[in-house]
Automatic annotation (TrEMBL):
Keywords: Hydrolase, Metal-binding, Metalloprotease, Protease, Zinc. Residues 1-97 form the MPN domain. InterPro entries: JAB_dom_prok, JAMM_MPN+_peptidase_M67A, MPN. This is MPN domain-containing protein. GO terms for molecular function: metal ion binding; metallopeptidase activity. The lineage of its organism: Eukaryota, Fungi, Fungi incertae sedis, Zoopagomycota, Kickxellomycotina. One of its GO terms (biological process) is proteolysis. Residues 208-229 are annotated as: Disordered. It holds the Pfam family Prok-JAB.
Length: 229
């Protein structure tokens, strides 16, 4: 069961993703301080589908190996990929996939064999109540990345030929993750707290374009999406 996600910094290029080691250490410290243990990692594919790359499979295999339990050989560690382009769900909603790899067997050619990825089914729970500290964590996440030079400009359209900006798309995608009876409450949090921060720090383009065209709409991000059982 994934209860919480820690937003590690990455040392990503446009096509590959690596966790920043210092950030990973910090995540482990935070988790163990709350009596939790690390059970997976997540990253996004900003421009392509939520299937693991060769590098992702390699990394997942390495992480799983580190988590192998001596007693039963089980490796309780999953990989989660969020794909903002989406395409398999409702309009604007990012795709999420969870994967695991089977390591090469003892009979495989040691040098040539590859770990095989497969997709894990998952169920999202906890979408009926907004955790008290979630908004604080999200606000902190936005503010702590406000000076990042390579941050996305959410005022831009999320795809060519789309009227929707990346900001609107983000809010639509997050909102979808909440149960319907929670969405109005979520909208209020977004309007009061998250949207102003995103406009301030992540919308460098025409402020007038983003300032008045977006209905209040939202939901949550990859972090909380994965609060699964
Ligand atoms: Zn990847």
């Amino acid at each position: 069961m994934v209860e919480v996600a820690f937003p590690c910094n990455s040392t990503s290029t446009t096509t590959e993703c690596e966790m920043d080691p210092a950030s990973e250490v910090e995540a482990r410290r935070v988790f163990s301080a709350s009596g939790r243990q690390v059970v997976g990692w997540f990253h996004s594919h900003p421009t392509f589908e939520a299937t693991p790359s060769v590098r992702d499979i390699h990394n997942q295999h390495a992480y799983q190996s580190l988590c192998r339990r001596a007693a039963d050989g089980i490796e309780p560690f999953v990989g989660v990929i969020v794909s903002p382009p989406g395409g398999t769900g409702p309009y604007g909603v990012s795709d999420i996939s969870v994967f695991y790899v089977t390591p090469p067997g003892p009979d495989d050619d040691h040098m040539g064999a590859e770990a095989l990825p497969f997709s894990l089914p998952f169920t999202v729970t906890g979408q009926h109540a907004i955790a008290a500290d979630l908004l604080d964590a999200m606000a902190h996440l936005i503010e702590s990345h406000a000076d990042l030079i390579q941050r996305a400009d959410l005022a831009k359209r999320f795809k060519r030929n789309e009227a929707m900006t990346s900001l609107e798309k983000l809010l639509v995608s997050m909102r979808y993750r909440w149960a319907e009876d929670i969405r109005q409450q979520w909208d209020e949090h977004v309007a009061l707290r998250l949207r102003p921060l995103l406009l301030l720090h992540f919308c460098r383009g025409s402020a007038s374009e983003t300032g008045n065209s977006t209905p209040i709409a939202t939901s949550r991000n990859a972090t909380s999406t994965v609060s699964n059982e």
